[in-house]
Please model this.
Amino acid sequence: MRNFSKLALIALVASACTSQNGSKLTGEITGLTNDTVLVFANDPVAGQTVEIDTVPVVDNKFAVTLPDSSVLLLYIIEKPAGNGAMRMATNPPFVFMPGDEMKVTGDITDLKASGTEIYDNLAKAVNVTAVEEKIKAVGEKLTEAYKNNEEKVIDSLSNIVQGLYEDLSKEKLEFIKNNPNSLVSGYLYQGMKSIDGLEAEKILGDNVKNSALGGFISKITENYNHQAAIDKASENIKSGKMAPDFKLKNLNNEEMSLASFKGKYVLLDFWGTWCGWCIKGIPDMKKYYEKYKDRMEIVGICCGDTEEKWRNGVKKHELPWTNLLNEKDNDITTIYAISGYPTKILIDPDGKIVDVFVGESEDLYNRLDELFK
Model:
C-alpha cells in the first residue's frame, strides 16, 4: 500500500472530486478493515481488464477519475491487509458510461450505485429486483451448504437458483418489452437466457442501440448467438450420438481428425492453460492414461490459448497424450457444445459418444474402470 498522511489523503480525494478530465466515481463505504480499495474496470467490447488504481479511503469516502472513452464494467474490492482475503460486492459489476458521475454507497459486500441515468431509474424494474433479491438470499444459503459439505442441500438449492435465473430472464424480457428505449433496458440486456436475449435484441429501441451502450449490446448479442449455437449443438452431444468429426493441428503442425483414432476409445479433453481445474485434474488424467493407454487415447484440445501458451503448457505439465490446438479460425467448441472447462467427452471405437463429463469429478474415472474392467 502507498504511504499517505491523512492530510495528503484528503487532498487527493478533493483533487479527484474536482478534476475536469474523465468521468467521476465517488463512494461512501462501510465495513472496511483497511483504508484502501482497488478499482478494476473491464472494457467488455475490447475484452480487456484494467486496474484503474489503488484508491485511498478517508473517513469512509473515496473518489477516482475514470477514462470516459467507452462503457466500463466496474469492480470495487477491498485491498486486503497482510494475507487477508479480498472482499467485494456480491452484486454484478457496475455499468459505467462515459460522462457518468456515479456514487456507490453501503457495505463493501453490498454496494448500491446512484447518480447515473441507469441506476437512478433501475428501481422501476421492480419485478427484476425482486427476483434478484431471491437469488441473493438462496445464494447465501448455498454458500453455507458448500461450507458444510451438505450435498443434498446443495443439489436442492442449485435447482432453485437455476429456476430463479430463468424467472429473472423472463422478467428482464418483460421490462424491455415495456421500456424499449430506456437505458435501463440496455443494462438489463446482460445475463439473460440466449433465447430471451435474442428476442429482447429485436425489441430494444434505437435510443438504446445508438447510445454509448451500443458496443456493449452488440458484444452481448454476439455471446447470445454463440450460446444459442451451443444449445442447438448440445442436442447431438449425448450418449449414443455420433461425435462430430474435426481437423486440428498437433504439436508437429500435422492435421489430425477424430477419424484418425477410429477403432479405439477416445477421451476428448477440452482444457486450457488458464483453467485452474483443468490443471488440477492432470495428475489423475496421467494415472488413468498410463492404466488404459493400450485401449484408450486421450486427445487434449487446448482452448482459449495462443499457440505459444499451448506449447509451453504441454511442455510444462508433461502431457503424454495427443495434443491439439483449438484456434479461433477453426473453433470446434461450438459443435461440441462446450460451455465449461474442463469438459471431457468419451467416444467409443465406432465414433459414438459414450458420456460427457463437465468439471473434475470421480465419475469419469469410475466410468473408465467400469468400461475396461
Summary: The radius of gyration is 24 Å.
